[in-house]
Design a protein that fits this description.
With about 525 residues, the chain is an alpha/beta fold. The protein folds into two domains: about 250 residues, Aldehyde Dehydrogenase, Chain A, domain 1, CATH 3.40.605.10; about 180 residues, Aldehyde Dehydrogenase, Chain A, domain 2 (3-Layer(aba) Sandwich). The protein is about 35% helix and about 20% strand. The protein contains 14 helices and 25 strands.
């Protein structure tokens, strides 16, 4: 971090792009494929600047109460259009800052997913069923989910520079659809990409007449300022995706003052491969497991980091088959942090008794790479140190656990921490059904999404998707970070009206259905009809 005054990239506060007062301290993104710092400098904002964003966000929250939901939907759609208009530029810069491939990863996969999320958020804002409007005509009570009354702070991760970006990703889209302004804290791994997306949001704000503080951008703060930010009286809520350590520090600060914070943190996403499946298609499952482990160089929150099998000659052959695949050349990591975090995780796993099968070391060269790493452990060893042996390694690192019988596999399932996903591979003719029926119900309570005969790294943007799970996968098992309208519910407050005159009610609670398509619970029945 530099300590000399210099021209830095502007921040966006209160509808104005401006030089940061924190230009004495700055940082640069690094091209991980060459370990070369990029030319642009980005400021570390002092607390006074963060406070200015909070004040502007609070003003925008008040102004948004008078903005028609159709106008908010138009903003989200215009935002998506603006990203697409500069798609090649956005994808190219995201590639330089993260090392992720332009094609097919960024340009043809992640960018369309990002704009699709924004358009789904727009549709939900326009249609409004997400707000769960409830009307009790006999008692004169009416309620709905409405905006929080303050800005939502969004901390985006480094591994999805577009789809989970702090400005345009899922948390941002959900918070905006609920009628809240956002304060985006850019991930320092891809600040330039975040600035480009913010420019698209800014143009959409101006074109649709949105409040000036609807979307704001800062690049970096001190850890102390981050804790003060999420716990500030003006904040409505926080959405965070990142490491368990950083998430829990922010959660402690927010919880201390009762501020909502929604966390997506660590997950090892266990895969149970049952004996019949190995007899039927061992090589195919090995292919799928390695492909899922290595997707995005293992830097997916749904990467399968733990595989559980019953000990046998066939499962030993399975380990050998996977080991052969793990000897492939490793991909480029997102940055230097990945090297020491993966190395530290592998050391913890080995210290807990895991046997190193392949890999286990940094790869020398002009880019950030860590050898694909496979480890193994017995069921007894796992049960002796289950917490340490569930250490997440954010790279192509996976641990295979050999249970000696089904009761031990059940015991392993009971000691699993909360995860985003779990997968079961079984024989197609039902040979494994008895084992499945004895283990899957235990696992069901440990995960947000349960898969059969599929790896977990595909997270569809669907209303039925759950990208969440029990702690430490997230901070709350009842919410999802992906899937509209469910993801919007995190950023709503329940507003109740007791015998309030009709003309003073929000449109969603008046007698006439404001859209004709909105579902409302009227006197105990879900309907699209008007009251009466």
């Amino acid at each position: 971090m530099k300590e000399t005054p210099m021209l830095t990239e502007p921040i966006l506060i209160g509808g104005q792009w401006r030089q940061s007062a924190g230009s004495m301290k700055s940082f640069a993104a690094v091209d991980p494929s060459t370990k070369t710092p990029l030319a642009e400098a980005y400021p570390v904002s002092p607390w006074e600047e963060v406070e200015a964003a909070l004040a502007a966000g609070a003003e925008a929250a008040e102004a948004l109460r008078g903005v028609p939901r159709d106008d908010l939907a138009r903003f989200l759609e215009r935002f998506a259009d603006g990203i697409e208009a500069h798609a090649d530029t956005v994808a190219a810069l995201a590639h330089v800052e993260t090392g992720l491939a332009i094609e097919p990863r960024l340009r043809s996969s992640e960018l369309p997913r990002t704009t699709d999320q924004l358009r789904q958020a727009a549709a939900a804002a326009r249609e409004r069923s997400w707000c769960h409007a409830t009307i009790d005509t006999k008692r004169g009570l009416r309620s709905m989910l409405g905006p929080l009354g303050g800005p939502v702070v969004v901390f985006g991760p480094n591994n999805f520079p577009l789809a989970f970006n702090s400005v345009a990703g899922g948390d941002a889209a959900a918070a905006l659809a609920a009628g809240n302004p956002i304060i985006a804290k850019a991930n320092t791994g891809h600040p330039g990409t975040t600035k480009l997306l913010t420019e698209a949001a800014f143009e959409a704000m101006q074109a649709t007449g949105m409040p000036s503080g609807l979307v704001q951008l800062i690049y970096r703060t001190s850890h102390e300022a981050g804790a003060r930010l999420v716990s500030h009286p003006l904040v409505g809520a926080t959405g965070f995706t990142g490491s368990r350590g950083a998430g829990l520090q922010l959660k402690e600060a927010a919880d201390r003052v009762g501020k909502p914070i929604y966390l997506e943190m660590s997950s090892v996403n266990p895969v149970f491969v049952l004996p019949g499946a190995l007899e039927e298609r061992l090589e195919a499952i090995a292919d799928e497991l390695f492909a899922s482990c290595s997707l995005g160089t293992g830097q997916f929150c749904t990467k399968p980091g733990l595989t559980v099998v019953l000990a046998s000659e066939r499962s030993e052959a399975f380990l050998e088959a996977i080991a052969a695949r793990f000897q492939a050349p490793p991909g480029v990591l997102l940055g230097s942090t990945g090297l020491w975090t993966i190395g530290d995780a592998v050391r913890q796993l080995r210290d807990a008794g895991a046997h190193l099968v392949v890999g286990g070391a940094e790869v020398d060269g002009p880019s950030y790479r860590y050898a694909n790493t496979l480890l193994s452990v017995s069921g007894e060893q796992f049960l002796a140190q289950p917490e340490a042996l569930q250490t997440e390694a954010f790279g192509v690192v996976s641990l295979m656990v050999f249970a000696h019988d089904v009761p031990q596999m059940q015991a392993i399932a009971r000691r699993l921490e909360g995860n985003l996903t779990a997968s079961f591979y079984t024989h197609t003719d039902g040979t494994d059904d008895a084992i499945y029926d004895g283990v899957a119900p235990i696992v069901r309570g440990k995960v947000g999404r349960l898969l059969n005969d599929a790896m977990p790294t595909g997270v569809a943007v669907s209303p039925a998707m759950n990208h969440g799970g029990p702690f430490p996968a997230t901070g709350h098992p009842g919410f999802t970070a992906v899937g509209i309208p469910a993801s919007i519910l995190r950023f709503g407050a329940l507003h109740s009206y007791d015998r309030v005159r009709s003309h003073r009610l929000p449109p969603e609670l008046q007698d006439r259905n404001p859209t004709g398509r909105m579902w409302r619970l009227i006197d105990g029945a879900w309907t699209r009809d008007d009251v009466g």
